[in-house]
Write a structure and sequence with these properties.
It is a single chain. This protein is an alpha+beta fold. The protein has one domain. It is built from 8 helices and 13 strands. The strands form 4 sheets. Strands 1, 2, 3, 4, 6, 9 and 10 form a 7-stranded mixed sheet that branches. A two-stranded antiparallel ribbon has the order 5-13. A hairpin with a 2-residue loop joins strand 7 and strand 8. Helix 4 crosses helix 5 and helix 4 runs antiparallel to helix 6. The model has no long low-confidence stretch (mean pLDDT 92).
Length: 278
Amino acid sequence: MNSPEIDRLREIQLELLNEFRRICDLEGINYWLDSGTLLGAVRHHGFIPWDDDIDVGMLRKDYDLFAKVVHKHLDSTKYYYQNWIEDPNYGQPFSKIRRKHTTLVENSAESTNFESGIYIDIFAYDEYGNKQLRQGLPIKVSRRMILCKCGYKFWLQNNTFNIKRYIVYLPIRFLSLFFSRERLISYYEKNARRYNGAVMQKVFENGTTNYDKWAIPISCFQSFTDLLFEGELYSCPGDYDLYLSTVYGDYMKLPPKEKQVNKHTIVKLEFEELDSEA
């Protein structure tokens, strides 16, 4: 992408973030800037220079409440809410708010059929049981099976064919043939929520590929603080230092130049319909 495209993309993502925040404020729902977006707020006071997405997080009870009330408040002339219950072609365990009249397609999802406008990601956090066999492995396998059923191809990376990843996914693709998408989603949700209410010390992000790495002390979310992100204040974990240290280690230190790269490979980005809307 060239610089004007990146600027336009980020402008729309901020618009989506503000719509999300507006709904949360109306309903008194707690949320926080999540993962790389939180890191960007703390270290750069905005987007990480080589990043091009926005992530927000919520504890499961708030995530479920948001899903229940979002359609009551969302400006449906401009935006739509997407999760794997409402969109039968969408395969991720986290939801999105997307901008109508735009297109953003990443290479792994190029052969899918779900709605694909510019988006922000909304992640649910469930209580972490530290049980790979009872929670970590079931959600990892069932998620990958769901993604295969929805047409994702994660062996395509940076427009190249990853033979190792293709081989890893072969048995998962085969197993997915024997289960319906709905049954797999039910199985995923059951295991992700397994320890909710058990007063565990950590929560994990639904959507991470590393169950243990993204196990965050729940104390991070006992309070919230506002931090600047691209000139506006947004809710962040009260103990964002512990959160970021847990996930990134020495998070204020910039990675080496060769690792300052965007991990999303966008193969199609269109604003044309949005331009005609104006």
